[in-house]
Design a protein that fits this description.
- The structure is a homodimer.
- With about 350 residues, the first copy, chain A, is of the alpha+beta class.
- The first copy, chain A, has a single domain (about 1-330), classed as 2-Layer Sandwich (HIT family, subunit A), CATH 3.30.428.10.
- Helices cover about 25% and strands about 25% of the residues of chain A.
- Chain A has helices at about 120-140, 175-190, 195-205, 250-270, 305-310, 320-330, and strands at about 1-5, 15, 55, 70-75, 90, 95-100, 100-105, 145-155, 165-170, 210-215, 220, 230-235, 275-280, 295-300, 315.
- In chain A, the strands form three sheets. In chain A, strands 3-4-7-9-8-13-14-12-11-10 form a ten-stranded antiparallel beta sheet, with helices on both faces.
- The longest helix of chain A has 22 residues, at about 250-270.
- The radius of gyration of chain A is 20 Å and the shape is globular.
- Chain A starts with a strand and ends in a 17-residue tail after the last helix.
- At the A-B interface, β1, β2, β6, β8 and α2 of A face β1, β2, β6, β8 and α2 of B.
Chain lengths: ~350, ~350
């Protein structure tokens, strides 16, 4: 038996195909081998990146020298450039725009071999604080319509450098998927006078079957119409449309649940490659009653994606309810609540 | 320098990042190694698949025995099932539907090791005729809203069996990407009273820079806002909204340009894994003035797709104009116009 499920926000249908029902052990292990060799993100190689735009550092250390805990630098091969003037023009039936924007890299720790979920929680919080600090700064540039924060972990997920890092891209347009979310959420709000994400969170917390974890401020769940096996969303319980409006206390709480969630995925799926994307409101609309910022985590376990790209029609071989159960049961070292949630590779 | 380009049909912006400008040789060769061993699609193993629903066979041979040239069977592990009754229902804020549909496999030739572009042209035409015959038949089932024809070639593109095959899925919904195309094309038609695809074909044939190849009935081009390096579209020159309305003569013409296009990709990119998806009108709307059926071919050369999945925002490291040039210049054996366009692996 399989069933079709509709994403309540953007209206996409997904096939949940239990015929191919997959448990964690059914996915081939794709843990990332260390490549060794020179790394431009390692301490001591600060001159091999463009000069840093932000860092958390030990007192008394100079920019672009060792002593940093988290370091943000412009991408050496940027997809978009901050220097370019924003020009829009037509070309017959086509429209184009200059590649104006920003593309930065958040180096998460000096330690080349430590994954984000293995950092101590205050360090995870500093990674998030560095991202949010850069978002707040980039938002001041009125050419930018959207700030994307995302992470590619592991070569199968598109990471070109092994040293753990997160990326920030500021764009002169609102990405299509974000625009669809905004539109779907606004339609629900117009109809119901409620935020669709708030509705989902309420129903999920009551049901429980798709909830992986929660703390005071946040909940982690596997979405009803998951596109990918073990797709996991992390949402604030209280309504808020922009991640950069979080207080420092809320960022600490987010760091705790992000570390825990990534740790559960790492344990259940043996250090899978994954992507996460922060979905937040556009630059000029920070306080929307109908939109709810969140983080979408997509482990890269299957390759059945080419056809899905072409059609927007996804086939997911793992029931989201099963995925949530596996993640809830992932081995946690209960004796070390603040420590690593799973053994190192 | 990079630039943003807007897909004129569905309105998606794409970053064309020439900073990372990639030529064919810059993509690691991912040619698919032969795995050997048992294959359920090989002649003699007909009883290892569900019974065939269609075949082109030698005279006097029985169904489900050797002697076929093209064979269509239900997928042994279907994503959707034809037996299921179509039931829609709600679950609080969520909507779901039974997994009713069809999932068939078109085995393209008895020869395990011959790629689609290496078949003799009449055989390629029979593959297409088998697909179209099955589409016409499945359309009679009024539960189905859309018939998807697609191919995953190579393990990185999601193929689980090596023996060349194409797949057909009949769905009780219209896939989101298709619905977006229909909507975008209808908006253009409402505004201009012209088909957007016809407009594009006219402009591209005049410009020439993104045209890869053409024959009497069809044109192959790299789209202006290509999401992927060497993304290639194959469109009928005359307006038509549904592939299953083609005449046998037009199918022969399509076979010729499909074989040539896949051959050019195979030569230029060293037998890359790829997906193709046929985009055609929904079952109950075969004759639309605003929609233009076509085939989208997506070579699987990069892995920078996780973030793209999450945002619908693509970064393409190869200029479509450069890709078209490389494909136009791909080595063709001019002395054997009807034969293979490139050497076997």
């Amino acid at each position: 038996m399989s069933e079709l499920r509709k994403d309540p926000i953007i209206g996409r249908w997904v096939i949940i195909s239990t015929e191919r029902g997959k448990r964690p052990v059914d996915f081939p292990s794709v843990a990332i081998p260390s490549r060794g060799g020179f790394c431009p993100f390692d301490p001591g190689n600060e001159d091999k990146t463009p000069p840093e735009v932000f860092a958390f550092r030990e007192p008394g250390t100079e920019p672009n020298t060792p002593g940093w805990r988290v370091r943000v630098v412009p991408n050496k091969f940027p997809a978009l450039r901050i220097e370019d003037q924003l020009v829009r023009r037509g070309e017959g039936v086509f429209d184009k725009m200059s590649g104006t924007g920003a593309h930065e890299v958040v180096i998460e720790s000096p330690d080349h071999g430590t994954a984000l979920c293995q950092l101590e929680q205050p360090q995870t919080a500093e990674v998030l604080k560095a991202c949010i600090q850069r978002m707040r700064d980039l938002k001041k540039d009125r050419r930018f319509r959207y700030i994307l924060v995302f992470k590619n972990y592991g070569e199968p997920a598109g990471a070109s450098l092994e040293h753990p890092h997160t990326q920030i891209i500021a764009t002169p347009i609102i990405p299509k998927r974000v625009a669809e979310e905004l539109k779907g959420a606004e339609q629900h709000y117009d109809l119901k006078e409620r935020c669709i994400f708030c509705d989902i969170i309420l129903q999920e917390l009551e049901d429980g079957v798709r909830v992986v974890s929660e703390n005071k401020d946040f909940v982690t769940l596997t979405p009803f119409a998951s596109r990918f096996p073990f797709e996991t969303w992390l949402l604030p319980k209280a309504h808020g449309s922009a991640v950069e409006l979080l207080s420092d206390g809320e960022i600490d709480s987010l760091a705790a649940i992000l570390k825990e969630t990534l740790g559960r995925l790492r344990c259940a799926l043996q250090a899978p490659p994954y992507n996460f994307v922060v979905h937040t409101a556009p630059c000029q609309d920070s306080r929307l009653p109908y939109y709810h910022w969140h983080i979408e985590i997509m482990p890269k376990l299957t390759k059945v994606a080419g056809f899905e790209w072409g059609t927007g029609f996804y086939i997911n071989p793992t029931l989201p309810e099963d995925a949530a159960k596996y993640l809830r049961e992932a081995a946690l070292d209960a004796t070390r609540p603040g420590g690593d949630l799973c053994p190192s590779r």
